[in-house]
Write a structure and sequence with these properties.
This protein has 363 residues and is α/β, with parallel strands linked by helices. 34% of the residues lie in helices and 17% in strands. The protein has a 10-stranded mixed β-sheet, sandwiched between helices. Strands 13-12-14-11-15 form a 5-stranded parallel β-sheet, sandwiched between helices. A hairpin with a 6-residue loop joins strand 2 and strand 3. Helix 1 packs across helix 6 and helix 11 packs parallel to helix 12. The protein starts with a strand and ends with a strand. The protein binds threonylcarbamoyladenylate and magnesium ion. Threonylcarbamoyladenylate (TXA) binds next to strand 5, strand 6 and strand 10. Its EC number is 2.7.7.87. Belongs to the SUA5 family. Required for the formation of a threonylcarbamoyl group on adenosine at position 37 (t(6)A37) in tRNAs that read codons beginning with adenine.
Length: 363
């Protein structure tokens, strides 16, 4: 399968999924849409196929993959019996952008998927193409985001092609993804009573809290703290050993150097404009990452709005495309406006911080 277009019509869609399923069954790797971002999938039980995902992405081998399932029977084959908290999460949020780390059933998926851990991260995506692909192939699909390691995740098929053309066996194109940021990853706490957020994402902290207790040491609380600790300083090491291996790697980074500006909105705008003016005097090509409401205030070489401040979901949807667009224009220095830390804003701030290499300016 070179490339299968899904948008064209239902009949073609069925063909595309059927072809992609055959590729998966034969040890190939295929990019496909989910409701969060495009994933790069392989049969999770096939070590050779999973190995090819790491090669195609240039991904460090100690970073485990999420296994995507389409029905609960598949889950029981992959994980050991789990408790009430996990059940409540599945009932409320699956299919959907929530990944749950559970004890793995030995030998059920390739050790390359779990990177040797005794746990496995599982989710049921809320996307008809992804669900059909899993069902038709009959495979639990191991899939990281379908980008080269370190690049912003792909929210359109064109982003996958940009990064992975010639390195994968197929691409199912269903247009832009809905959420635009990756799934929330949680683990169950040692006492089995609560969850710890390992990666904020498509399911908001507030929504999780309606269903289960969330431990306060979760990563979502740490962005503001990190900003306070590191204001004005260059990127440092991330604090203590991360519980989710993926969180320690540089991520989502545009090629230009980015800084995240945090504070009262008017002061943020003034500071960003000052920084841009100074950089332009140094002869640098400048970029500002803002929101539709504030975009008219800036003078820079490239001003991009990820979405609207009054609907942060739209900013989540547009973030990765905007980060990629700065690269297209060859922007060398970028200043990004922080957003309120509520709802999807937690995940947005997490990705903005990472894209900025944890370089903050607090005004
Ligand atoms: O929305 C998403 O989650 C997308 C789509 C394709 O489903 N996938 C995705 O995968 O973002 P990836 O590989 O880019 O991120 C997986 C995250 C990493 O931070 C990884 O360290 C963590 O999940 N993870 C995987 N298995 C784990 C485990 N057993 N324990 C703790 N963290 C785990
Ligand atoms: Mg990723």
């Amino acid at each position: 399968v070179e490339k299968a277009e899904l948008a064209a019509g239902a009949e073609e869609a069925v063909t595309a999924i059927g072809e992609a399923a055959v590729v998966l069954q034969n040890g190939g790797i295929v990019a496909f849409p989910t409701e969060t971002v495009y994933g790069l999938g392989a049969d999770a039980r096939d070590t050779g196929a999973v190995e090819r995902i790491f090669q195609a992405k240039g991904r460090p081998s100690d970073n485990p993959l999420i296994v995507h399932i389409a029905e609960m029977e598949q889950l029981e084959q992959i994980v050991l019996p789990y408790g009430e908290v996990a059940k409540r999460l599945m009932l409320r949020f699956w299919p959907g952008p929530l990944t749950i780390v559970l004890p793995a059933r030995e030998g059920a998926v390739s050790p390359r998927v779990t990177a040797g851990l005794d746990t496995v991260a599982v989710r049921m995506p809320d996307h008809v193409t992804a669900l059909r692909l899993i069902a038709v192939s009959g495979c639990p699909i191991a899939a990281p985001s379908a980008n080269r390691s370190g690049r912003p995740s792909p929210t359109r098929a064109a982003h996958v092609e940009e990064d992975l053309a010639g390195r994968i066996d197929g691409l199912v194109d269903s247009g832009p993804t809905g959420v635009g940021l990756e799934s929330t990853v949680v683990e169950i706490t040692e006492d089995g009573e609560a969850v710890r957020i390992l990666r904020p994402g498509g399911i908001a902290l507030e929504a999780l809290r309606e269903v289960v207790p969330v431990t306060p040491d979760s990563t979502v609380e740490s962005v503001e703290q990190a900003a306070a600790d590191k204001s004005g300083s260059p990127a440092g090491q991330e604090a203590s050993a991360p519980r989710s291996p993926g969180m320690k790697y540089a991520h989502y980074a545009p090629q230009g150097a980015m800084q995240l500006v945090i504070g009262e909105p008017a002061a943020v705008r003034a500071r960003i404009q000052d920084e841009v003016d100074a950089a332009q005097r140094r002869g640098e090509k400048t970029g500002v990452l803002t929101y539709t409401e504030h975009a008219p205030y800036y003078r820079a070489d490239v001003v991009l709005a990820s979405g609207s401040l009054t609907r942060l979901e739209s900013a989540a949807q547009g973030l990765y495309a905007a980060l990629r667009e700065f690269d297209t224009h060859g922007v060398q220095a970028i200043w990004a406006e922080a957003c309120p830390q509520e709802g999807i804003g937690h995940a947005l701030m997490n990705r903005l911080s990472k894209a900025a290499g944890h370089r903050f300016i607090r005004v």
